[in-house]
Amino acid sequence: MIKILFLLFLVDISISAPLCKKGENNCAICNPITKLCIQCENDEVFIPDGKGGCVKANKCRVGKNYCNECSEDEKLCNKCAEEYFPDENGGCSYSYNCEISYKGKCLKCKENFILNKNLSICKSILSEDFKNCEKIQNSDGKCEKCEEGYFLSSEDKRCSKIENCRQSAFGTCLLCNQEFYLDKIDGKCKKQTGNLMYCKEVIDGKTCNECEHDYYFDQKGNCVSTNFCENGANGVCKQCLSGYYLSKFGNTCTNQENCYEGIKSIGICEKCISGFYIDYKDGKCKSNQEENDFKNCVKVDGECIECSLRYYLGEDHKCANTIYCAESINGTCIACKENYYLGLDNQCSKVEHCIYTQLLECQECENNYYYDKKSKKCKLWDEIFNGCKYGHEDKGCERCKDDYYLNKTERICYNNNLNDSFYKCATTDDNGELCASCINGYSLRNKYHRCSNIDGCVLQESDNKCIECNSAKCLNVKTGLCENNNNRAEKRYYKCKRTNDDGSTCDECLEGYIIDEEGFCVTKK
């Protein structure tokens, strides 16, 4: 029983939530202290729901679904782990069905797949997103026009048989437009009128089953606005009674400032806005940004009992930036629980010698170690695994460290800093003969299948030194950079292929041009 003391009255609230059980509700790992799920089965699709189970991911969370950085509204992921692209569920998807990509963005999909340029993912034209779709929009990979007899949902751009539907699946409406409710009997969207005003879903043709957001059932079963409201219009509260505050979510009037979500029937605060925690001693929302025992905490009952998003409750009852943390300072883990190891990323891992983890999986081991996916351990390099980042002990290396490239035929890593065909290469082709991809910061020049980080360079000798540019650039031999050769104002580069040793004049012109007496390229006569 949690007691909350208020100025006007005392309310006892009994909070009951289903306890987490491994293997139930898609949960893989339970927190022994909070009894909540902390890792879901198939965690690329499901995330903890904060109630003991898991739900399908519908918003972005850093560290979940391979996401490294979320958008400001936390709906989509901005930056994903290597070889992953942002998807529509707020997480990241592997680059399946992408034929051509550049700097983490898919540019072209395989046949029978269409590119969503905003999310940089490839969708099958046979998927449910395009069921009953007549025309697909190429710019964002969504349906633009439905087949005859179907209507385009305004929210998810899918085709539904129901008019005034804004979200559908397989031609069936799930959510109607505003001012319409979904009749579960015939599946149609109907105008909200009479006692069905502000109703979202009707189960028997006359009884409301769910109200619109910001509304709740009164004693007669009608959908009405929040309690403790002094001034409102169209069922929306604009000003609360004296002594109450309008919460930031749920259109709720509560008796606590900085409240995000309240219990409408009694007006108390249930959840504070970001940067505050709710103190169950007095029911007030207090700042959790100060350097104290409650930093990054959201619920306090004498001690912290629940942490903010992406923080976990440690054995010291403080919030840390990683699961399995035993001790932290200002949100940064400094010691892990028994049988766990602290990496350079201040994350706790089950793997000894691991320095970076993601979703409890080791991503990189210490120098001279590689991650063996079969045994899930960091192992010392031997001759085969020299330069390897991770792989399978019985199958060879899968990915090399930045200073090495992977020969796909041999499954062995070789140094990529030598001035040869594999300079700054990441992986070879399947035959192990040509470079197929480059390390971060470098791109492949198809003329020689070599990597370069210099704009216009097709053959790079070493860091920051090009030895051959493409036809639109002139090689400045002194600097090793490629200069624009289409600007007449820059006469020493105009139609020049390469300069002299000090970069002052042109030494060789493009085909069809010769050097005149002043050392500039002019058209052959």
Offer a concise description of the structure.
With 525 residues, this protein is mainly beta.
List the helices and strands and how they pair.
Blueprint: E1 2-5, E2 10-13, E3 27-30, E4 37-40, E5 46-48, E6 54-56, E7 67-70, E8 77-80, E9 84-86, E10 92-94, E11 98-102, E12 105-109, E13 113-116, E14 121-124, E15 133-137, E16 142-146, E17 151-152, E18 159-160, E19 165-169, E20 172-176, E21 180-183, E22 189-191, E23 199-202, E24 208-211, E25 216-217, E26 223-224, E27 229-233, E28 236-240, E29 245-246, E30 253-254, E31 259-263, E32 268-272, E33 276-279, E34 284-287, E35 297-300, E36 304-307, E37 312-313, E38 319-320, E39 325-329, E40 332-336, E41 341-342, E42 348-349, E43 354-358, E44 361-365, E45 369-372, E46 377-380, E47 388-392, E48 396-400, E49 404-407, E50 412-415, E51 425-428, E52 435-438, E53 443-445, E54 450-452, E55 457-462, E56 465-469, E57 473-476, E58 481-484, E59 496-499, E60 506-509, E61 513-515, E62 521-523
Parallel strand pairs: 21-23, 33-35, 45-47
Antiparallel strand pairs: 1-2, 3-4, 5-6, 7-8, 9-10, 11-12, 13-14, 15-16, 17-18, 19-20, 21-22, 23-24, 25-26, 27-28, 29-30, 31-32, 33-34, 35-36, 37-38, 39-40, 41-42, 43-44, 45-46, 47-48, 49-50, 51-52, 53-54, 55-56, 57-58, 59-60, 61-62
Task: Please give a structural write-up.
It is a single chain. By secondary structure, the protein is mainly β. Helix content is 0%, strand content 45%. The protein is built from no helices and 62 strands. A hairpin with a 2-residue loop joins strand 19 and strand 20 (172-176). Residues 1-17 have low confidence and may be disordered.
